[in-house]
Amino acid sequence: MTIGLAGLVVSSCADDANGRDAHQSRDMASPVEVVKIERGPIATYEAASGRIEAIHRAPVFARVSEICKEVRVIEGQRIKVNDTLALLEDAEYRYQRDRELATREKARQGTQDAQVQRDKAHADHDRIKRLIEQSGEGIYSKNDLADAKLALDKAEIALKVAGEELKRTEATCAEAELRFQNTVIRSPIAGVVVQVDVELFDLVKVDQKLFDIAELDALEIEVSVPESSAGSIRAVPASTSGAPDISHAQAALLYVAAWPSARFLGYVDTVAPIVDRERGMVDVKLRVIQPEALVATQERYEALLAQFPPPERRVIEASAQEFATNENGMLRPGMWVNASIVKDVKPDTLLIPSGCVVNGAIYVVVPPAKSDGEQKPKEGGRGRETASGPTVRRIDILSQRGVRNDKFTELIPKGDDGAMLKAGARVVIRGQDFLRDGSGVKIVQAPGEGAAPQKPNGQTSGVQK
Fold first, then answer.
1. Which residue, of 31, 144, 348, 457, is most buried by count of CB atoms within 10 Å of its CB?
2. Are residues 74 and 141 in the same domain?
């Protein structure tokens, strides 16, 4: 009897100790934040940088020499084709034009008179000739016919001279009109004024450069990539019509210092056929797509947008919407650009944020058992499911990861541990520092349902080659 009571006391003490350990285990659980493993696209990039240049630039020169009486634009101003840039004094050229117009009108009247005289001479000659043929030399003689022929020849010569004079005066009048029109300086293209080289009351000389206009709809960036990456960069192919086939172009993500949180779209246009021997680099030209063009004809660029993972694509589209109606949001020549050229795209793969990986390993959350609380050991006793709360299992992914960049890491499940790497599994993204295999955890935040939570301002992290 005494032995039985002692056994009950020992058993009761053991149960109390186990309860205290379980309670302490729950209290000591490490707080962590988690994300879910999800399926999605991932891309690898080639980083490059350069300045935006205008493909089409139009210097505007003076065609006449005169005093500048008005400048209507400033540097940085957007303009359309034939917009007036400046006005020169035109009084003298107006007088010359009006004088030539009067001379042309006089010559035109002389030509009309000469035409009337020629028609009359031609009718007299035909009438005399017809009467002689019908009645002989009764009313008119052959001498009269010869005189009529001579008068006709003179009239035709006079008409020809008058016609030549009219052509000369018309040419002179057109020249005077052109000089008068050249006192108004107009833009030959639509774009932005990048340079103004004339001021009010300046004496402008013929062939003096006054303005420099750059077209904003055709911009490019010349960058250089290492020789080792040249094989993964391709020029845009040509379509059957000879125009660039953008649907098969290689996309590029563009960052500018003026708007750090925005992202813009571009694509590889040309790739140099040779390698710079001194630098070991290949020159590549990227075409820039303005936000306004992307919003207006997004379907044209759908193949380019599809090359980016959803977060990057969303930022590109949001930036385009924001800057499309903002005149100051245009990408401009001279801006410094950091570009990320898409080298390879995997459209459907397992992804986790790269921040989940610490020292080549990740911690996968093992949920508590749904049964009566009995411990159910996993393989090798690691990452137990317990009734007291979730634990974590440390998985080395050095041999189970594929494409990676600063934002995402691709998972390629292998072996027994790989069975836990599936869509929907939760992975620790913050709080790994104090974890070990089998540690109890307390999930304090589970940001979003995506593979990578968005940053507060929509920014995406830099890329890794």
1. 144
2. no
Same-domain pairing of 111 and 196: no
The predicted pLDDT at position 446 comes to 54
Mean pLDDT by 10 residues, the chain (465 residues): 41 47 58 91 89 94 96 92 96 96 96 96 92 81 90 95 96 96 96 93 96 92 94 86 85 93 95 94 96 92 89 91 81 92 86 92 88 48 56 92 84 87 93 90 66 39 39
Same domain, 77 and 109: no
**How many residues are there in the chain?**
465
Taking the model in full, what pTM does it have? 0.63
CB contact set of 303 (below 8 Å; sequence gap of 6+): 246, 247, 248, 249
Question: How far apart (Å, rounded) are the C-alpha atoms in residues 145 and 129?
Answer: 6
Query: What's 208's domain CATH number?
Result: 2.40.50.100
Q: Is residue 432 part of a domain?
A: no
Is 35 inside a domain boundary?
A: no
Picking from 369, 374, 391, the residue whose alpha carbon sits closest to that of residue 382 is 391
CA dihedral 158, 163, 167, 173 (to 10 degrees): 80
Alpha helices in 277-334 (DSSP H): 291-296, 302-305, 310-324
CA distance 96 to 101: 9
154: part of which helix (H) or strand (E)? Answer: helix 142-181
Q: Burial of 409 by CB count in 10 Å (0-12 exposed, 13-18 middle, 19+ buried)? A: buried
- Same domain? For 70 and 208 the reply is yes
Measured CA angle at 33 (ends 27, 39), to 5 deg: 140
Q: Which residue has the tokens 């005169």?
A: 66
Find tokens 């800057």 and name the residue. Answer: 323
Number of domains in the chain: 3
Q: Are 266 and 303 in a shared domain?
A: yes
String of DSSP letters for 78-146: EE-TT-EEEEE--HHHHHHHHHHHHHHHHHHHHHHHHHHHHHHHHHHHHHHHHHHHHH-SSSS-HHHHH
Q: Is residue 233 domain-resident?
A: yes
The answer to whether residues 233 and 205 belong to one domain is: no
CA-CA distances (angstroms) from residue 243 to 4, 282, 284, 292?
Answer: 96, 24, 19, 21
Tokens of 322: 């924001």
